Amino acid sequence: MGSLSGIFQRPVVAASAVALASVSADLRDKIWPSKPLDTSLSSEQASGCTLDLVNETKWARVSDISVCKSFATRSSLPVPKFRFPMFHVENSCHSNNMAFKVPCFEHLHDVYWSAELAKSPRPFDYYSSECNATSTDVVYRWHLPCPNAIDLSKNSKMVVVLLGWLGAKQKHLKKYADWYTSKGFHVITFTFPMSEVLSYQVGGKAEQHVELLVNHLADWLDEEDGKNLVFHTFSNTGWLIYGAMLEKFQSQDHTLMERIKGCIVDSAPVAAPDPQVWASGFSAALLKKNSIAAKGYRNTEDIAAKPTMSEAALLVILEKFFDVILNLPAVHQRLSNVLVQLKSGQPSCPQLYIYSSADKVIPAGSVESFIEAQQRMGRVVRSCNFKSTPHVDHFRHEPELYTTQLSQFFKDCVLDSRRHN
């Protein structure tokens, strides 16, 4: 790899320069936010779904740490022992959205008495070694169910693991976590710092973070019977992380695979190491809202939209870069192992694929061909084509359709299969 540094030095510098150029646009968006989009569903959008739409109540906004004494005394919660005299807890389930302070260690001990860790320490927030304790860019975070959640007792023994897309941070996954915790689920939001993705090495820090999360989940499942997992992955990055986690579950204890009760795949997959797809993904992560990938098919202008000259140049550079990187023997072998696991070694749980014909990173045809392959293997597969929404942006553009798909999938496939078991 050392000999490659000179070859790729200029492409990486160019990518960094383009990323810096996008900062001004991000500031503009924060100062003058765009108006909310119309969330009404067109007949064309609805026709792309394999599920009938049902009415869905609006999801409640809940905090990262939502607890109350009555709930904590009934359920074993995955939070560490506290050693501080005061702890600040935000609870936006309250109507006034006010934060409150727990003033003493004794009261904290009462609230969390059932949450002591039986085995190894398991962090509530796990930080990368490159992040400090005050950073919000943690690798993974555990969100507790909202105490006032619908179906709390039925769902509180299930963890939904959200595996973020390339460049995603905890704040980007919070709206998904809020929806799940409002339904009574535990949620883990998992992201990679961009620096660790760019400096990826087989068996390096990135895979160590995955192993840490797998060990954490295995300990949680081992505490008592009836606990299960559901994975919700975003883009090819989240989907490949899911494949790596499946490998580790299988090598540790193959019975852990039986505890996975569902998998939701958002904006993925492309089941091959395609340099063009990787280039599009990295370009979208670097340029964010300035990328062509952030545009769906809302009007004729969007359909005809082309990447800017700077993005087109970046895409050419990145594609050449990944054409070399993905063919390095160690990287190619590692990716191949994960892809084999995802193609033929997934657990026998229902799958839901959410994608869009307007996705400029992941071609809809690649998603549909993978769905067909899974169906030929006898898998229970559902899907919804959102038609006009951009890459990993379906929830923001079509929240009612998105949450309806999730609710129906859990009702018909995940929770129903758990009852039968």
Explain what the structure shows.
Its main location: nucleus. It is a single-pass membrane protein. The chain is of the alpha/beta class and 421 residues long. It has a domain of 240 residues: Rossmann fold (3-Layer(aba) Sandwich), CATH 3.40.50.1820. It is built from 17 helices and ten strands. Strands 3-4-6-5-7-8-9-10 form an eight-stranded mixed beta sheet, sandwiched between helices. β9, α15 and β10 form a beta-alpha-beta unit. α1 packs antiparallel against α13 and α10 packs across α14. It is globular and about 55 Å long. The N terminus is likely disordered.
Overall, the morphology is globular
What is the CATH top level name of the domain at 36-63 and 157-273 and 326-420? Alpha Beta
What is the CATH homologous superfamily assignment of the domain at 36-63 and 157-273 and 326-420? Alpha/Beta hydrolase fold, catalytic domain
Q: Major β-sheet, in short?
A: 8 strands, mixed
Beta-strand content: 5-15%
Structural class: alpha/beta
**Helix segment tally:** 17
Return residue spans where pLDDT drops below 50 for at least 5 consecutive residues: 1-45, 51-123, 129-136
Report the end-to-end length measured between terminal Cα atoms: 49 Å
Mean pLDDT: 73
CATH architectural grouping of the domain at 36-63 and 157-273 and 326-420: 3-Layer(aba) Sandwich
Predict the CATH topology of the domain at 36-63 and 157-273 and 326-420.
Rossmann fold
Q: Could you tell me the radius of gyration in angstroms?
A: 21 Å
In what order do the strands lie side by side in the largest sheet? 3-4-6-5-7-8-9-10
Fraction in helix: 40-55%
User: How many strands?
Assistant: 10
SSE series:
HHHHEEHEEHEHEHHEHEHHHHEHEHH
